[in-house]
Design brief:
- The protein is globular.
- It has one domain.
- The chain has a five-stranded antiparallel sheet, covered by helices on one side.
- The protein is mainly beta.
- The chain is built from one helix and five strands.
- This is DUF2188 domain-containing protein.
- It comes from Paraburkholderia metrosideri.
């Protein structure tokens, strides 16, 4: 099974298979569940609240790519 990883200046974000679809995570925090990995990447790029970021709490400030092709593939 594969997932996706993006290493930002604040740390790694993951989009991984979840219980009923896909989960976006940062550290040990789940940022949401999504129907597809593309939907997760879109939402992270546009801005998801993440209180554990050291600068602000919005992922849109981290230049997270919307295209999954720009994410690293990880095997889980």
């Amino acid at each position: 099974m594969k997932g996706f990883r993006f290493g930002s200046t604040q740390g790694a974000f993951y989009i991984l298979p979840g219980q009923d679809g896909w989960e976006a995570t940062y550290g040990n925090e789940t940022l949401g569940e999504f129907n597809s990995p593309q939907q997760a990447a879109d939402d992270l790029a546009r801005g998801v609240t993440c209180p554990h970021l050291s600068e602000g709490d919005d992922t849109s400030m981290l230049e997270i790519p919307e295209k999954l092709a720009d994410w690293e593939i990880v095997h889980v």
